[in-house]
Amino acid sequence: TPVSRTSADPIWYSTMDDVAALTTPVIGKGVTAQNLTFVSGVTGSSAKIDASSEYAAVGAIPYSTPPVSFKKDMGAIEFYYKPDVSASVAQTMTLFNVRVDASNQLKLYKQSGSNPMWLEYTHSGSTKSIQVPYTSFLPYWNIGSWTKFRVEWDRTKSTPDDLKLFLDNDRPTPTKTGAVFSDMAGDPTLYIGNVTNTGSEQAMGAIDDFTIFGDPDSRTYVVNSTLDEGDSDIGDLECYTASSVCTLRAAIQEANSTTNLDKIVFEIPGGDVQTINLSNALPTITNPLEIDGTTQAGADCVTKDLRVVLDGDNLTSPGISFSNVSGGGVMGLVIHGFSQGINYTSSTGGSVKCNVIGLAQDGVTVMGNSESGITLESSSSTNTIGGIVEGEGNVISANYNGIDIKSSNNNVIQGNYIGTNKGGEYSRGNTSKGIQIDNSTGTEIGDADTNSLPASCTGACNVISGNESGIYYFKGTSASNDNVIEGNFIGVDKTGEFQVTNNYGVRASKVSNLSINYNMIASVVSSVYAQAEASAVISNITVDNNYIGINRSGDTVLMDSDNAIWLYSSLVSSLTTANVTNNIIVGAVRGSGINVQGVNTSGVSIKSNYIGTNSADAGLGNKYGIYFLSPNATNNVIGGANPADGNIIANNDSYGIYLYATVNTLTRNNTINNNGNDGILLSGSTVSKNNTIIENSIYNNTGMGINLRTIASNKVSFNDKDDTDSTTAGDGPNDLQNFPVLTKATYEGTTLSIYGGFQSEEGKYYRLDFYSNELNDDTGFGEGENHIHTITGVEANNPVYDFSVTPIVVTSLTLPSGHKYISATATECGEVACTTLFNTSEFGLTGFDGHIIGKGLELDTTTPTYPRFYVAGDGVGNIPDLFAFDILSDSSLDLVMGLNTRGEMSATGIVGLDYNNFASAGYAKGEANNVSPQYQIFNILDGYQCGYTIGTNVKSTDIKIGSNGVGSKYVYIVSDSPDEELTLMQGEASSSGFAKYGEYLSEVRDMGTPIQYYHSLIWEQSIDVNEGGEIKIQLRSGDSTDLSNEEWYGPDGTRGTFFELGAETEGYVIPKVIQGKRYLQYRVLMETNQNASPTLDSITIRYGN
């Protein structure tokens, strides 16, 4: 069957569509010649050769640009003819003549009378021709009816395939043949009609759609049978089997016999779905060939209602295979039951689109191919699987691998459903990988030019879901480089609203320059898993602007996973330079939003992500936000110098950031809040160092803001004198860098004054960062919600950076509303300018409202026999176990009874020595000489635990700080007790037992505009009835913040009386003498023995409205 006009490539001239048309006049398009008229043609107006006319000289054929068929080995001419006279007319009629002169021409003419039709080719005066007998062409010569004529020549063939004539796609058997010669000498002209006649001839008829083809070997074979027979005469360019039908096998055999691009189409009679059952492998396609199943009646690419099924019934060969082919492709087939649905080996420029590979014709039922749906291997490059136009994508599901690309570069995968049903709605996964890529460069999955996340998966977007791994870069002999995954839905349905998860979304073992951008990814194990396996290198990965674990609407977790992004190296592999930016990362409830793991991991940059939340601050948390489990992992950045680089790491179940054994990691400008444990945890004592944590917003985390965790302690790592643990290997992460300790902070107008001190290793420089907070951490050591100030070039131990008297002053500062707590960190610098930053400390003791947290201690010296030692917590209900006070040196008071015996706490002493010769305070019941102190004592200015010099077996009357100075401006006490209650330090022994007294003085509170009406005080408390105890409360109020001269009142409005709190929830009406004043203060007094203390669970003062 001849090639159709629309599929030949190239067409050098056609009056049908004016492709590279000749110079005017053009037949059917405005011819002006002798006695020509125009009549209704096949596709438009046609030229009619009227009576007495001779010919129409159409024009010169282009000779070199482009090269025309007459300068090539093969060519064809095709046109439609409608005769006005009978085939036996007594005159010779030339239908066309391509002519230089009489010695160089190709012409088709009917001899006069009932004689043959001749096709002659003359070159340099020598003529070869074929003749078709009168009886053979007569059925096609019908007055008033159109007949398609086609002439072909091929100098590479011998008789009878050198010259051919087809009439309405049939080839009448010629009676005379002869081989053609070389190309014409000179530039030919096309003539229609009798170029050599006298002009007295009668009308010969109309000619239309005259087309010159440049490649007659580009044929279209029409498969019209589901049989699996071979061609009866391979190489004759005619698809005919012994059963006189054209089968797919025969069509491929004929196409392989030529070198140019052929086409196979399907017109199998019978309607409905046609299945071709193969008993053995089809021939491997070795020349360019297009196979198009969409020509079968009823086929629809958009709905994937395809009507030609290729069934291998478990053959171990590919369904359709190409080898060393440039161009061609497969379209519109259902393919299953083979080792590989389609295979390209050493083939380029191919196209695979609108196929269902691995499922039955319904696009739902699992059938499969045992190795892959599509394989590209052995340098099969620049092929396209799918397309961006609706319907061009393939459904590639239920195979072992969906697409397998091996050692093949620059291929494109677009618009496919890989691992789902044909509607992209639910799983029909490939058993192993949706797409597997090995040692291949430049693969484009999706659209490399996209700059936004698709609203739904259309166009170039692939749905890659329901597989073990969505996309897998295999560790082969070489890395797969410069690959792009952009604009796809991976692990979700086509809408992005429902999960159809892969175990792994994108998995890579050996790659460089991999871009994973603008995708939706959900997974069971990991959405992006870059694992540098043994001896492999992963470098330059970009993960940008993806929705990971969240639906397309951005408000719901799609799938609980292990680690959303997992970057991994080992002792014998490496992972370098990974950029994770602008993503939403949620739902990793068994692991981390981002997990960076392995020894040889460096250059990881994590910026501008939402981790555990979205832009609306929804609680969509991971277990950990970011987790570095990477001994010696170096030079990684979380956030950056630009505030826009910061990540929002919130609502995760445990740590916001967990850094284990990392080196030189910068954490800067991030927001880390509402996480279920520490905001940032550093661990790994032996190697974790030089991790810098500055300018972040860290707040409302359940644990500490920054925790330098050691093997011995998972709470505040208290300062040591001269920061000597910084010089002892293995002491703790970041060398347990000492932190600043703030004694108080005052804020007047827009001026903040910060008091405190800092001491660390001598001879180094430090940077101090200060933060404001609305709430204080339960430890009393603060978080850092709002960065407000930085000091660089601080020299510690000079002797101490002391700002307890002359404060650090920050002017022109507007604190956020409600921010009254000030915290600080210290970071070691490499030089005075602090351009190089190393270890950052935990947050130091928080200063606020003019007091240290805990409000203070008083020693009652008015009755020396019974001195009282008061310590109170910060408020009630959730009382922290941290207190601070001034030390008073008074020779009349023996404050250090029990200090002479290490580890023995005297029941009559305030402080003693623990087993490490550090000062302790308080009393806990236990066996004699083996009791545990309730508190440790620390020097607040230097921030290190107090050691005392007491002489040899001599009781001292002074508390001596470890620096051997007498007295100290401040110390603070930290409880080891797990109970959060108001605990009172014991005082001197009395004749009636071991009395304990306590008093808590609240801050002065601004209650706003006074409104006088019903006010109340309500509390909840419990009292140990066996041991006894009492809690009392007093109130005072005034019109200014200075209430020092105001009286204290109880419930009856009498000065000096108390609200006496009973053993259960009760309440009092506040007396009128207190009401109506703006400022209010209360104090709580407790009294009990040493063995038990009442607890105050909550107190509510209703004041004003």
TrEMBL record:
Domain Right handed beta helix: 572-719
Organism expressing this protein natively: Candidatus Dojkabacteria bacterium
Protein's UniProt name: Right-handed parallel beta-helix repeat-containing protein
SUPFAM superfamilies named among the record's database cross-references: Concanavalin A-like lectins/glucanases, Pectin lyase-like
InterPro entries: Beta_helix, ConA-like_dom_sf, CSLREA_Nterm, PbH1, Pectin_lyas_fold, Pectin_lyase_fold/virulence
